[in-house]
Amino acid sequence: MRTFHDFRNEVSAGKLKNVYYIAAIDNYFLSRAGEILREKLFGSKDNKENFFLKYADETPMQELFDLTSGGASLFSSQKLVIVKRCEKYSRKLSEFIEKTKVTAEDSYILYAFDTSFVYEKKLDEVKGIDFYDFSELPQRELYNWVKEEFSTRNISINNDALDLFITSVPASLELLNTEIEKISNYDFEGNEPLLTKEIILQFIGYDREYSPDELMTAIIKKDQNRAFSILNNLLNSKGLNEVYLLSTISNYYMDLLSFKTPGLDAVDSRTLYQKYKMWGDRVKFAKNYHKSTSINSLEKAFSKIIDTDKKLKTSMLDPKILMTSLVDELINA
């Protein structure tokens, strides 16, 4: 399937279609697609006078097609409609697909489906319709996209920082865009803002060599010296407190437990994020180590985590001592 970049380039070149079929996971590219089409059709991305956003689970099918087949209003010669969650019409999918092929000449419609639904139902193989995949970008395009987003904010980013940024944020364009906005507010020195690895690390809160992932790996491997070294580094990092670290450790153990479900280790990364909110280091960790832990040891670990959580909220003991004790107990669980 073609990508968002193909869509953008075609629209920019004036090669518009009346009907677009989109496979998407989050809203970022759909929103951008709407802006691009409004710019082309109405002269401004902010012009929404003849723009309609509909949701399939809130709009009866006939009502939708009455809208898409009718002409534009008196105030505009063209109409733009974006329909999200089209997989909700699955009970009448064949009828829906056939009806989407017919639209008024002055109407431009985007039908957006969940990506996993498109592949499951093999909609990309249906004759007469042509899907664009807005769910993710190929690696090279993703890197270029991130650089372009920073560039539009007059910020340069070096390759080390780019690698660290992309591998530290879930594979969601919405989340990536949100993090780009946050980092762009950094108070850069000089007239030419340059985003470095060191600046990215300030936002992440820890060095990759001393990350929660490395801590969990040391715990599972029962490497006490390494675990305590990483823990000490994390607890003395800016922006990372004991409660947050405990929550992160708990999430890693939840991932290990989830991977006890037969067949989950064969699920693709896109679905793991979409359904289970698992990504990056957490996925790799769970896949690598879920067989190294027993259900009994996981039960003990959760018991220790819950107990530590209560003590962090009520005890007068030093939180660092509580976390050190927890790590020791997890190693021996």
Write the SSE topology.
Elements: E1 2-3, H1 4-12, E2 19-24, H2 28-42, E3 51-55, H3 61-69, E4 79-84, H4 93-100, E5 107-114, H5 115-120, E6 131-133, H6 139-151, E7 156-157, H7 159-168, H8 173-184, E8 194-195, H9 197-204, H10 212-220, H11 224-235, H12 242-258, H13 269-276, H14 280-289, H15 295-314, H16 319-331
Please describe the structure with a list of short key phrases separated by commas or semicolons.
single chain; 333 residues; six-stranded parallel sheet; Zinc Finger, Delta Prime, domain 3; alpha/beta; Rossmann fold; two-stranded parallel ribbon; Helicase, Ruva Protein, domain 3
Q: Biggest sheet, in brief?
A: 6 strands, parallel
Query: What value does the average pLDDT take?
Result: 85
CATH top level of the largest domain is Alpha Beta
- By DSSP, the count of extended strands is 8
- CATH-assigned fold name of the largest domain: Rossmann fold
Contiguous low-pLDDT stretches (5 residues minimum) are: none
Helix content: 40-55%
* Strand neighbour order, sheet with most strands: 1-6-2-5-4-3
Strand content: 5-15%
First-residue to last-residue Cα separation: 48 Å
Can you tell me the CATH architecture of the largest domain? 3-Layer(aba) Sandwich
Number of domains: 3
Number of helices: 16
Structural class by sheet pairing and helices = alpha/beta
CATH homologous group name of the largest domain:
P-loop containing nucleotide triphosphate hydrolases
| General form | globular
Radius of gyration equals: 24 Å
